[in-house]
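Hey, quick one: can you model this chain's 3D structure?
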Amino acid sequence: MIIGVPKEIKTNENRVAVTPAGVAELKKHGHQVYVQAGAGEGSGFADKTYIQAGAEILPTIEATYGIAEMIIKVKEPIASEYGLIKENQLVFTYFHFASSEELTHAMIKSKAICLAYETVEKSDRSLPLLVPMSEVAGRMSIQAGAKYLEKTHKGRGILLGGVAGVKPANVLVLGGGIVGTQAAKMAAGLGANVTIMDISLARLRYLEDIMPTNVDTLVSNEYNIREMVQSADLIIGGVLIPGAKAPRLITRDMLSTMKPGTVMVDVAIDQGGCFETSKPTTHADPVYIIDDVVHYCVANMPGAVPYTSTLALTNSTLPYALQLANKGWKKACRENHELQLGLNVINGDVVYNGVAEAWNLPLVDVNNYLELETVH
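Sure thing. Here's the predicted structure for all 376 residues.
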């Protein structure tokens, strides 16, 4: 298969979808790999390392899309890329369709095969291609939150861990999944008082067992959230419904009950955000303030630590990319249900329920495309 790896062009996105080691593995299986010039520089991988691994370097993004049967990316295509995507071209990346109607319709129009990292799902409901970036984002959320709690950034001017004789900050974590667990660990490690909320009692029991003593668990419901936001200094939103819009757990009216300078970090912003007042921001302009509450809603948080993020992501994506390249997307998805669940849009049809529901679009049965061809 001919595989293209374009340079990410979303603002401040420095990750790359395939490392030189990944190129070498794909080449070993007989595939041709074309990498856009400079694609790996932000993550510390020079063009010459890709050439040494067996890739060919192409000068432009147009050339990379133009030659490839499969495009492997990190972030969803942006408007300038829509016209480059071809009918029947397989695009393997994070899409987060439920947060962008424009992107959804653009990919429907392209008639490409859109296989989304974030909806590849194992039988135990875990999301193997979302987990590594959720781990990074969960840990980063505390770094970012601690920074923006500083008075110079319009925060409360409170040190997360406090000092002798001064109480530490109160951190509220919404969601006990990968993001929430990593955020709570980081905040607790810095000495904050942490409360982590989730709707699953089983998950809360597990967290109660593994977390240090400065982490409390609490059932998530509107009443408890309203109570907790009043005393929180830093609030982390880490709630996820795979492939669908995130639920809005903090409403606009709750902001007026918070302390001035409270910081909210919405890690769920890729899926629309779990705060009513959330809107996507970038690393270049990461925060805004509403009702004296600082909002940090960067949509590609792991892009700020690209070396770590690229290695973590490609460790997970490469085995799936190899299956797609070795077998073709239809056979790979027939034989691997995890990959099949990653299919969101095929040749203009929406085949993933969360996307169809988000934009009130007709849902087509994915098996219509995966049926074995009749042999005559």
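One thing worth noting: The first helix runs from residue 20 to 28.
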